[in-house]
Request: fold
Amino acid sequence: MPRNHHAIFIKTSDKEEGTIFNVTGNAMNGFNLEIRETLQSPRLEATFVSWAEIGVVLINDFPSVKEICEANPPPGKQYDGLKRIDPTKPLRRCQEWTKETIGHLREQGVLKLSN
Reply:
């Protein structure tokens, strides 16, 4: 059963416009960092499942989000055909990258708890 795609969405207007930070790809070929502006809510995308509001980013801290996302490397190629390249390392996909990046954003004080 496939796992849902995870991403970080930062809303930049009352209309749910904003920026999506995520990695795209797969464990067979590796992932790439994708940062894209969206003029519509991610809720309107056909593949949307859910979202959780986890905090706020101040306007002055917004440039740091990109820097922190770029500093966390996307998962690389983890399979050669059907064989794991390094079975001693846990698989790292978009879910893991997103969780790690959220942790970095919190550690560096960029992602703050909402009141």
Q: What stands out?
A: The chain has a mean pLDDT of 94.
